Amino acid sequence: MEQYAHSKWKKLIQPGLVHGSLYYDEEIFKEEVEKIWFRTWVYVGHVSEVPNVNDFVTKTIGPMPVLMVRDRNNEIQLLLNRCPHRGNAVCVQEKGNRARFTCPYHSWTFSNTGDLINYAFPDGYQGTDKSKLGLAKVARIAIYRGFVFGCMTEEGPTLEEHLGGAKRAIDQLCDNSPTGEIEISAGFLRHRTRANWKFILENECDGYHPGFVHSSIFSVADSAIGSLYGSDAVAVTRSFGNGHTEVDPRPEFRRRDEPLSWFGTSADRLPDYTRQMNEAYGEERARQIMIDGAPHVMIFPNLFIAEIQIFVIQPVSANESIQHSTAIQFKGAPDINRRLRQQTMGSVGPAGFLLADDTEMYERNQRGLEIRNPEYLYLKRGEHRERRDEDGFLIGHSTDDLPSREIWRHYLSIMEAQ
Amino acid sequence: MAAEETVIDGPDILKEWVGKGRVFSKSFDQELYHEVQQFVFREARLQDIHDYDAWEDLWTDDAIYWVPANGTDTDPERDMSLIYDNRSRISLRIRQLKTGRRHSQTPPSQLARVISNFELIKSDNNDIKVMCNAQIFETNLRGDTMWASRTEYSLRHINGELKMAYKKVVLINNNKPIFTLSFLV
């Protein structure tokens, strides 16, 4: 049996070739839920979404809802919104502030630490251990620079081991804030997408498509994004391992050598932000941070940091996903924050200049797979020019399929495991 | 408050949905009501048939085109909106559509919208404020989609013609995941 499972995945995923059924087969989707979403580290939310004691917000791990709570002791908790009694939801509000959750069915009441406080008519329960009837929790929770991750199993690598080299990208993002902290405070746009989650995952570091999918907006707006993804671009794609990938345009920005060029602006247009950065880091370091800009990194399986915004990918079924997107805010930097929001609102979400068209591509890809020949998708672009950078990470040209190949290599290793 | 006015009220739990606090005018200016309706019907037709230039011409120079997310009375200067366009971004939106390479509108959505429930509301300045409901049927490559909104306009007479200074489209399901919305709503 093990041998059979082993050969099944090896057949579906070959070097530079992946089978179409990986995107539409509901049985494969169910296996992904168990092996990826409920077994490995998944991004849940950011601590700034629950800034005050007793704040809560509804998040997800795969198709499953999760309550992210800052409990009465100021600890971040990931609670499962299911009354242990009969399965009802203990909270139907999306977000709010409350110290306890009461199930409406039989009035069982839980502290926001998850503990069962009381149930109705307690004399009906004799010798019951209330401590065993609290809300279930995500088995492990870990926070890296404010980003909250959950893992549904006790065993396995730590979050830091899982993130590995991708920690650098998160650090790079936070360094762009003069306080070293970012905030997720503007609320999310939710984009319903009739496509498999992996089409979204793979597109995030696909530098081959922007010049075509987004040529409409590049041709009418003064956008310098297009030049990052031409055939003569010096930007690279990188694999950090564990399925994490990035497009790294720093070589291009360093060539330009202009602070805030990455953001399509200049230091004199954001004087307050520039002054704050200089005060926080010293002029030399601040200048380097503002030349390099924010990262473009896809943290497997669901957190995409796209320079100035984040996307959270939520799988719904083999054929449907939700993209959650919002502007990143740099804590304590109001003049850049308004631009970050305005630019994000123009680009992303169901009506965005960019994402409406990306999503159109995902949905057409998904429908395309109803055509069963050829059986495999072809992901070999740039195979001949993969190389190692000075840290030992695989890199390629910004338009190469290297990120997809590396995502699938990691995927194979997870799905093959018993 | 004058006797011919009424304030929208409703349960607190729906506060962000009913646009609480807006003052409806009970006095009835038949001629204005007719003119406003004709304007909104024309706008709807231009959107349905993708007459981008004629639609853009309806806007004033200080225009705001706002489609909030996650409620009705959010703060567009703090919260994410689906669309929050000033006049120059409206123009950019139109220019993108006109390239013919806006893939989510190539081919364009086939649309028919029904606009109803017009009510004039109290205005703080000389603009004419009106609220109405819209239902939009869209069909495109993905399939058929129904959209519904409460819509609020500020209209202004400029050289004898009505223009839009403000259009706010509150999609009834704007707190849920929604499909791509790249036609003019």
UniProtKB/TrEMBL annotation, chain A:
GO MF annotations in UniProt: 2 iron, 2 sulfur cluster binding; dioxygenase activity; iron ion binding
Domain (Rieske): residue spans on this chain: 41-123
Keywords: 2Fe-2S, Dioxygenase, Iron, Iron-sulfur, Metal-binding, NAD, Oxidoreductase
Record carries keyword Oxidoreductase: yes
InterPro entries the record matches: ARHD_Rieske_2Fe_2S, Rieske_2Fe-2S, Rieske_2Fe-2S_sf, Ring_hydroxy_dOase_asu_C_dom, Rng_hydr_dOase-A
Pfam families in UniProt: Rieske (PF00355), Ring_hydroxyl_A (PF00848)
CDD domains, per database record: RHO_alpha_C_AntDO-like, Rieske_RO_Alpha_N
Keyword Oxidoreductase: yes
Family (UniProt): Belongs to the bacterial ring-hydroxylating dioxygenase alpha subunit family.
Matches recorded under PANTHER family: 3-PHENYLPROPIONATE_CINNAMIC ACID DIOXYGENASE SUBUNIT ALPHA, CHOLINE MONOOXYGENASE, CHLOROPLASTIC
Protein name: Dioxygenase
Gene source species: Thalassospira profundimaris
Higher taxonomy: Bacteria, Pseudomonadati, Pseudomonadota, Alphaproteobacteria, Rhodospirillales
